[in-house]
Amino acid sequence: MAGTTHPGAHTGAPDRDATASGPPTTVKRRPPAAIVAAPPPADTAPIVEAPERAVAGKPLKLSGSGFKGTSKVEIVLDTKGPQVTGSVVTKSDGSFKASVAVPARAPETDKIKVVGTSAAGKKTQLAKVILVVAEGDVPATGGAGLARPVLLTLAGVIPLVTWLVLEFLGWRNRRLDKKTG
């Protein structure tokens, strides 16, 4: 049947109801919705990174981010009462790197506090517990780094040596069996 259009068939022409006698009906399509990225959070919580151990009498390196740009951040060592050990001005992006002196004294557990203003303008205080140790209590540089390679080497060498010894003993027993048999 040439020229016959079935309802629902696509002909490229505007849709027309086969039984209606009125003007053709045009279906309008909506443009696709625009994809809008969500804005970043207004307040990124400040973060401070510091080692778990500090050596008495030596500098302690720490860093942080999420603070108000070009604002002052105080670093407080809280032992038997808060003691400001240093301060630093954050970079324009709110990050900082600092090195503060740890007082020389008997080993103990302390809190290192960083007090400043968050990117949202709120007064912020972050604390981390650190263990202050005497200089001799810290492993020498490279001492802990050698343990893994040594253990990995032993894990490969011990089975190899065991196999070689067993092969040698088996070879020797086969040789003795040939001489006696």
Can you walk through the features of this model?
- By secondary structure, the chain is of the alpha+beta class.
- It has one helix at 143-180; strands spanning 47-49, 53-55, 59-65, 72-78, 82-89, 96-101, 108-117, 123-133.
- It has one helix and eight strands; from the N terminus they run ββββββββα.
- The strands form two sheets. Strands 2-8-7-4-5 form a five-stranded mixed sheet, with no helix packed on it. The protein has a three-stranded antiparallel sheet with strand order 1-3-6, with no helix packed on it.
- A hairpin with a 5-residue loop joins strand 7 and strand 8 (123-133).
- The mean pLDDT is 78.
How do the strands and helices of this protein lay out in sequence?
Blueprint: E1 47-49, E2 53-55, E3 59-65, E4 72-78, E5 82-89, E6 96-101, E7 108-117, E8 123-133, H1 143-180
Parallel strand pairs: 2-8
Antiparallel strand pairs: 1-3, 3-6, 4-5, 4-7, 7-8
